[in-house]
Amino acid sequence: MAILVVGSMAYDTVETPRERRERQLGGAATFFALAAGADAGVRAVAVVGDDFVESDLELLASRGVDLAGVERAVGPSFHWSGRYHDDFIERDTLATELGVFADFAPEVPAAWRASEYLFLANIHPSLQGHVLEMVPKPRLAVLDTMNLWIETTRDDLLAILPRIDVLMVNDSEARLLSGQRSLAAAAAAIKEMGPQRVVIKKGEHGALLFGRDSVLAVPAMILPDVVDPTGAGDSFAGGFMASVAAAGADRDSDDAPFREAMLSGTVTASYVPEAFSVEGLLNRNPDDHAKRLRTLRSMMIP
Amino acid sequence: MAILVVGSMAYDTVETPRERRERQLGGAATFFALAAGADAGVRAVAVVGDDFVESDLELLASRGVDLAGVERAVGPSFHWSGRYHDDFIERDTLATELGVFADFAPEVPAAWRASEYLFLANIHPSLQGHVLEMVPKPRLAVLDTMNLWIETTRDDLLAILPRIDVLMVNDSEARLLSGQRSLAAAAAAIKEMGPQRVVIKKGEHGALLFGRDSVLAVPAMILPDVVDPTGAGDSFAGGFMASVAAAGADRDSDDAPFREAMLSGTVTASYVPEAFSVEGLLNRNPDDHAKRLRTLRSMMIP
After folding, report:
1. Domain residue limits at B206
2. pLDDT for A4-62, tens place per residue?
3. For the purposes of burial, counting CB atoms within 10 Å of the CB of B32, is it exposed (0-12), middle (13-18) or buried (19 or more)?
4. ipTM score assigned to the predicted complex
5. Which of A87, A214, A216 to mutate against chain B (most B CBs within 10 Å)?
6. Interface residue of A215, A227, A228 to substitute, partner B, most B CBs within 10 Å
7. What residues of chain B lie within 8 A of the CB of A297, using their CB?
8. Rounded to the nearest 5 degrees, what angle is found at the Cα of B92, between the Cα atoms of B87 and B94?
9. Which residues of chain B have pLDDT under 50?
10. Model-level pTM?
11. Among A45, A255, A270, B196, which is disulfide-ready with A6 (CB 3.0 to 4.6 Å)?
12. d(CA A38, CA A33)
């Protein structure tokens, strides 16, 4: 069982109300891969610049991430810079320096084109479409996107939605894509565009699964403290996909493994805000994950 | 089993992105009482002005609300006017005309002073304290408050918190009162101030119960449309209290009846945004309530 992820590997400069960290390891594919964990067999397709620190790649490799699809190009790595507001949720993007990511043309190694699980992290939808041509028949394809693509490349996005199985977006993206204020109406409209299932992430308010036959609302874990929430959404996706893949679920499965995956994604994401960069993900252990899963279930039992 | 509510009966002028309604029936005690339902035996202590429409009082009476504690004073009734933003959540208060409410001195009829359940809706904490002197030993006292009182009459509020059993506030109020950003830390700090249990309302994101021994996160019902959310929070309280009272719970009960009451409050509140004023509450029926409760449970089962 292998999970292919296509997305960014980057450096983030993050300013919170309490602290500022320069050029720490980040990027959607990075968080996703570390979140999915060593057992998930994650294969990463990404591009990094000539400034990308070798020990960061070694860290990923040491955590079981196959980097055969990571191209090292000449030029600077993708660098994102942002400042969080006092609530540690709202944030202003201060700079988006694409660097080598501007010319990213994802190339999936031939041996990976039969990957069973595919996560298309947030990149230009025409690139996501290009990947779907190279990996035409995964058991399950999950796609993330963002307001920028919904607004500026809507047709490209609509063209690929029929070819994916789960759309995973946040609530404002779901509303923007569908033109519907109600999340129930938004999810129904998005399903009409292609995917059988829609996952709506709401940060500290949890996440919703609009499944094939059911709806599940999962609260976020209630954290004692927040240090840096950057990457929590992609880490949710990593935990979600690892769970779905471990269950061997595909698009024709019933909702049960997807409901279970929502809990796993929630617990996985809960480690991210506890520390800067990927530190929270690196420090967790299976016992603590199991303990948080029990806590989450106890918070949900009606 | 009787529930005593002390709070406002008012007229609201509400402007939404779609429509404007002038001087429609509102007020915390009004929503609470109608939400609790005819079987709850709600006793209302409030003040209305000489402009308060008799048929509005008759409506409440016809729904089983005992109005023996409603004083009719000379002058205008409390009038609130507000405008909702495009998200139907954020709102600007355009006018708060207290009218006769400015001199409200709640007087609990002698026969009601042994009421078993007490809901102190959002009024000046010194008035809430005055009520607690008149009704010293309810089985359960629940209190709502707001940012204004937390900021301007903090000492009055802190003086009465040891005498109530459940504080019911929204997330920003919980943070303001406790000085804690984390809702877990906020609830823990509030419990130190007196109440054994804290309910944190989050509107469309649901509600949290920080119980004696457990935490429960209940999502909001996912509504197909929103017309006017005014009164949903007080209606949640009405549904919550009716459920707690029907179970005969008191402060020493375990968390089970309070967890159940969270679901009942959530379903009850879900009727409010579907129509202006109290219309949504008036139009519901037990079969539909039971159906929504099943839907809510199905959304929560981990």
Report:
1. 3-300
2. 999 999 999 999 999 999 999 999 999 999 999 999 999 999 999 999 999 999 999 99
3. buried
4. 0.91
5. A216
6. A215
7. 302
8. 140
9. none
10. 0.94
11. A45
12. 8
